[in-house]
């Protein structure tokens, strides 16, 4: 939106600048330049006033914040990354844990819009050492809930 206001400003400024440069050498040019600059100032107040008073109103800011919150809630990648921390806590040797990429076969993350709150079902796997030092692949499933912007909660974590 700010880019549109800047573009409108430039569309207004350039012709006035050209007009003023022509009038600079004309007779009675100073008065015409002053009038053009006053008109430009008035015309610039319209889009900038709209931007600051309407676009940035509390209602519009709240609406944009809700849209951003909804978009953040649907971020399946973050749900997958946050699930890895909860899985690490349950492993015998968390330092050896290697997780796949979210695009790897065998990894599925789904946003659950029918659930209350902001929840994702994560089905994935982790390669980590067991008690005997051998690396094994463990499949896991968990329901991840986004509580706030940087707080996630794991529900029903199952590691097989």
TrEMBL record:
Keywords: Membrane, Transmembrane, Transmembrane helix
Chain segments annotated as transmembrane: 36-53
Name used for this protein in its record: Uncharacterized protein
Domain of life from the UniProt record: Bacteria
């Amino acid at each position: 939106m700010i880019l549109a206001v800047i573009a409108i400003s430039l569309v207004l400024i350039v012709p006035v600048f050209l007009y003023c440069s022509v009038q600079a050498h004309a007779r009675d040019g100073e008065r015409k330049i002053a009038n053009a600059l006053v008109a430009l100032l008035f015309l610039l107040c319209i889009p900038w006033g709209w931007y600051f008073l309407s676009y940035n109103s509390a209602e519009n800011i709240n609406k944009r914040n809700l849209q951003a919150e909804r978009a953040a809630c649907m971020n399946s990648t973050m749900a997958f990354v946050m699930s890895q921390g909860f899985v690490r806590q349950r492993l015998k040797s968390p330092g050896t844990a290697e997780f796949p990429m979210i695009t790897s076969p065998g990894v599925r993350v789904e946003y659950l819009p029918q659930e209350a709150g902001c929840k994702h079902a994560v089905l994935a796997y982790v390669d980590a050492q067991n008690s005997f030092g051998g690396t094994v692949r463990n499949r896991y499933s968990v329901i991840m809930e986004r509580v706030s912007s940087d707080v996630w909660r794991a529900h029903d974590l199952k590691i097989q």
